[in-house]
């Protein structure tokens, strides 16, 4: 496969994005240092291309290139940042798409060892490659709920949550990533984030098994420890985020002789939810006291719950990148097929 040197160097992004997608599935954490070398490479290659085009013979080609770059940088980067601000993207997702905007502003070209065949096969009319990656990523993300629903249907799992979730044993949810899809009132897409649950359990120094064994005791805020633990970041990983310590103290490990009524806690704060969220120095993934209380009520009483494991956005992004580099713009092809492009 032959192409210009900058375009060939851009292929370095493929294994990096593949590794980041794998890491996102396993840990939901991607180190910031992942993107730094690619960001440097992206800037260098963009300047390289800009100089090559500027020194080129045609003014039309120069104007088109700089318009496409302006669209990529001026639209995709603010869009990614905006989605991060409103919580639609995680930090790694936003950084990855900002990087895509700089690394792939225009279509690369890779010539195959056969006559007149070059990848990507299908280009869009506007010619901004980062927009092609974005649209292919969205289409790849749409496939996910259909696959989830098909899997639940094949297993005879029927629920309002069957398109976005799967059932798991309530006692095992601390070994999962995702979000509860239940509240005491039934199906709820805005249920408790499981990372926030792990933070809460670590903060108060107990396990979910402890809560399920005696929910009435743990529901009373007087059961909270006088000196809570560092909640960490809720990750299951031991090499990404804050590792889970083996020496976390439980309530029995400290102040064992203290009278629970002497511990500062509000009697109108079931589960100590408000105290937890007030005590930590950062957000528990946007969790509210009501979400935490409802989630704990559900997990304390039910044997099986539905969770939405979600799909880390870097996974469809990686798929969108691969499809974009090979086939090209799927959405543009679909619009052409129905006469809209």
Automatic annotation (TrEMBL):
- What is the protein's species of origin? Haloarcula amylolytica JCM 13557
Question: Locate the Prepilin type IV endopeptidase peptidase domain: which residues?
Answer: 13-143
Cell membrane recorded as keyword: yes
Transmembrane intervals: 35-53, 65-84, 96-113, 125-147
Biased-composition ranges, Basic and acidic residues, are 251-266
Keywords, ordered alphabetically? Cell membrane, Membrane, Transmembrane, Transmembrane helix
Region of interest called Disordered, as start-end residue ranges on this chain: 214-268
Task: State the compartments where it is located.
Answer: Cell membrane
- A GO term from the CC aspect: plasma membrane
Which topology term describes how it sits in the membrane? Multi-pass membrane protein
Every Preflagellin peptidase C-terminal domain range: 301-330
Transmembrane is among the record's keywords: yes
Q: What is its main location?
A: membrane
Q: Name one GO molecular function term.
A: aspartic-type endopeptidase activity
Q: What is this protein called?
A: Peptidase A24B, FlaK domain-containing protein
């Amino acid at each position: 496969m032959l192409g210009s040197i900058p375009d060939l160097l851009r292929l370095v992004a493929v294994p990096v994005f593949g590794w980041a997608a794998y890491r996102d599935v396993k840990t939901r954490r991607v180190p910031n240092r992942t993107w730094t070398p690619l960001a440097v490479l992206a800037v260098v290659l963009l300047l390289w291309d800009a100089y090559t085009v500027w020194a080129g013979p045609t003014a039309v080609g120069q104007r088109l290139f700089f318009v496409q770059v302006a669209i990529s940088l001026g639209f995709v980067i603010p869009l990614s940042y905006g989605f991060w601000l409103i919580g639609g993207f995680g930090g790694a997702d936003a950084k990855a798409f900002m990087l895509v905007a700089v690394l792939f502003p225009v279509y690369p070209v890779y010539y195959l060892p056969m006559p007149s065949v070059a990848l990507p096969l299908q280009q869009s009319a506007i010619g901004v490659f980062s927009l092609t990656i974005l649209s292919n990523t969205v289409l790849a993300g749409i496939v996910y709920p259909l696959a989830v629903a098909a899997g639940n249907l094949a297993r005879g799992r029927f629920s309002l949550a069957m398109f976005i979730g799967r059932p798991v044993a309530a006692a095992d949810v601390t070994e999962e990533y995702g979000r509860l899809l239940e509240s005491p009132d039934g199906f709820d897409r805005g249920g408790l984030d499981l990372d926030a649950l792990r933070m809460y359990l670590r903060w108060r120094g107990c396990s979910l098994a402890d809560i399920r064994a005696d929910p009435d005791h743990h529901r009373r805020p007087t059961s909270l420890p006088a000196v809570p633990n560092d909640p960490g970041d809720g990750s299951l990983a031991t090499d990404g985020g804050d590792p889970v310590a083996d020496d976390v103290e439980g309530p029995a490990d400290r102040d064992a002789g203290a009278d629970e009524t002497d511990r500062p806690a509000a009697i109108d704060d079931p589960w100590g939810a408000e105290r937890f969220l007030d005590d930590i120095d950062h957000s528990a993934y946007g969790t509210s006291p009501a979400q935490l209380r409802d989630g704990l009520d559900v997990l304390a009483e039910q044997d099986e719950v539905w969770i939405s494991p979600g799909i880390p956005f870097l996974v469809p992004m990686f798929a969108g990148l691969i499809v974009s580099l090979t086939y090209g713009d799927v959405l543009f092809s679909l619009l052409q097929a129905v006469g809209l492009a």
